[in-house]
């Protein structure tokens, strides 16, 4: 009797040992997309768009320091006034040298011209890392969330699921090279940056799916690294990357989560009527089936469709004193903002906001080369939600003069003949001693109807080479055509 009781007790104990308690594993289901960028230095991404998990209540300083720890970066930061400020960090591959893209170099040159005492370094004063002042008094790290640069430190900005968190290095203008606007110089606009939030979020999903080797991903990467990339370029690579990867840009980044396993234990004990060895206890554990998540097809809302659109600029003809810009209607646009940039000069000038589909710029200067953009605005969304059309260059022109003949006109003289050029007020004649030699101006003819010229006092036995170009004058400014083809003759 005692043996049976002992065996039952052992059997019960054996059953209990098979019922293993599986603790619930905490899962960080909320994610942001994070990048580390050195575009202003010409160094590209230090960290390409990556899905990063976070716990509810964490701010961006928490996420940053955890990522730095994982990557082995040594950070210097302070929490003055309770606000986290990143001074810089060091680590493998952080220091990339300084080879700024053209747009940053142009901003730098303009800022230095206005502030001759400003010292912007060409070499890193703190090699091995990137810190505040590594390349001058206005260089350092800035962060943005969903294309917005918060005015508070990272510890004051809580992370939200789906955010795009970008850590970017600024070289000049304390962010003027990143935002395109110099807030310390009357908000001067150098360029209009496109919103790349949706593209970067899409890239992080493609990266997580192991598809970063797609050509469309590499193209998207180039567009993100181009500071002054246009909105239509961003929209184009989004569409290309969606098609190539099969991933929608409206998909919120997420990480695979482990289901919390549950077990239903139904132990079966075979009773032993005699004093034989203890029976084998084999509990049957039936795990709960893991449901297969189904994802409904992404439906793009009106705001997303508006952002992804690209209206087209259909015409930009130039006359002597004005430029007329015409564009096609853009769906859901309430108005259009027309801006102008003179080619070779930084900054855009807003000319007008209109509900019409055409605008005539009467302030255009003859001879200047302009680029125009038109932005569609929808007031139901944010005021700064715009779609920028591709730029279109327009300039006033004069027709080309075609040099048709150079022939002898008597002793040591040559006669040049050319065709009358459209809009010509006159012509300039240049001459050289060889076909590829240095052509110097020998005569300006102030009459658009004159189509001949006799060049005298030439040396016997020498060849002479000529070009003719037309010019047009408006408001005292001369516009010249391209040079004609070369014609030559020999003095006999």
């Amino acid at each position: 009797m005692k043996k049976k009781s002992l065996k039952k007790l052992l059997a019960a104990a054996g059953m209990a040992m098979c019922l293993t308690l599986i603790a619930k594993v905490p899962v960080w289901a909320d994610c942001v997309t994070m990048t580390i960028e050195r575009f202003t230095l010409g160094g590209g991404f230090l960290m390409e768009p990556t899905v990063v998990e976070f716990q509810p209540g964490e701010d961006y300083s928490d996420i940053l320091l955890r990522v730095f720890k994982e990557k082995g970066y040594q950070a210097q930061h302070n929490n003055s006034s309770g606000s986290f400020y990143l001074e810089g960090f060091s680590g493998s591959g952080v220091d990339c040298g300084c080879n700024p893209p053209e747009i940053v170099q142009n901003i730098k040159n303009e800022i230095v011209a206005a502030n001759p005492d400003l010292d912007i370094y060409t070499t890193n004063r703190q090699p091995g890392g990137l810190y505040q002042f590594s390349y001058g008094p206005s260089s350092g790290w800035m962060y943005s969330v969903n294309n917005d640069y918060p005015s508070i430190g990272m510890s004051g900005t809580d992370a939200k699921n789906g955010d795009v968190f970008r850590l970017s290095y600024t070289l000049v203008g304390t962010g003027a090279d990143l935002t395109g606007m110099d807030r310390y110089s009357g908000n001067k606009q150098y360029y209009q940056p496109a919103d790349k939030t949706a593209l970067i979020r899409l890239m992080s999903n493609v990266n997580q799916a192991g598809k970063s080797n797609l050509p469309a991903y590499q193209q998207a990467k180039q567009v993100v690294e181009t500071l002054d990339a246009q909105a239509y370029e961003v929209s184009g690579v989004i569409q290309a990357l969606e098609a190539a990867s099969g991933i929608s840009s409206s998909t919120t980044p997420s990480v695979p989560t482990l289901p919390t396993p549950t077990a239903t234990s139904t132990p079966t004990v075979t009773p032993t009527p005699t004093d034989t060895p203890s029976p084998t206890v084999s509990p049957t554990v039936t795990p709960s089936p893991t449901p297969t998540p189904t994802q409904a097809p992404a439906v793009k809302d009106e705001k997303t469709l508006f952002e992804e659109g690209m209206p087209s600029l259909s015409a930009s003809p130039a006359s002597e004193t004005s430029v007329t810009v015409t564009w096609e209607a853009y769906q859901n646009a309430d108005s259009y903002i027309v801006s102008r940039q003179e080619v070779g000069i930084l900054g855009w000038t807003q000319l007008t906001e209109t509900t019409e589909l055409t605008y005539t710029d009467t302030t255009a200067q003859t001879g200047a080369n302009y680029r125009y953009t038109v932005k569609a605005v929808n007031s139901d969304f944010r005021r700064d939600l715009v779609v920028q059309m591709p730029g279109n260059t327009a300039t006033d022109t004069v027709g080309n003069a075609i040099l048709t003949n150079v022939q002898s006109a008597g002793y040591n003289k040559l006669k040049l003949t050319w065709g009358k050029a459209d809009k010509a007020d006159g012509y300039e004649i240049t001459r050289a001693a060889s076909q590829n030699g240095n052509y110097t101006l020998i005569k300006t003819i102030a009459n658009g109807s004159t189509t001949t010229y006799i060049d005298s006092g030439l040396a016997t036995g020498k060849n002479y080479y000529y070009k003719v170009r037309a010019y047009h004058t408006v408001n005292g400014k001369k516009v010249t055509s391209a040079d004609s083809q070369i014609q030559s003759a020999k003095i006999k």
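The chain is about 20% helix and 30% strand. The longest helix spans residues 2-18.
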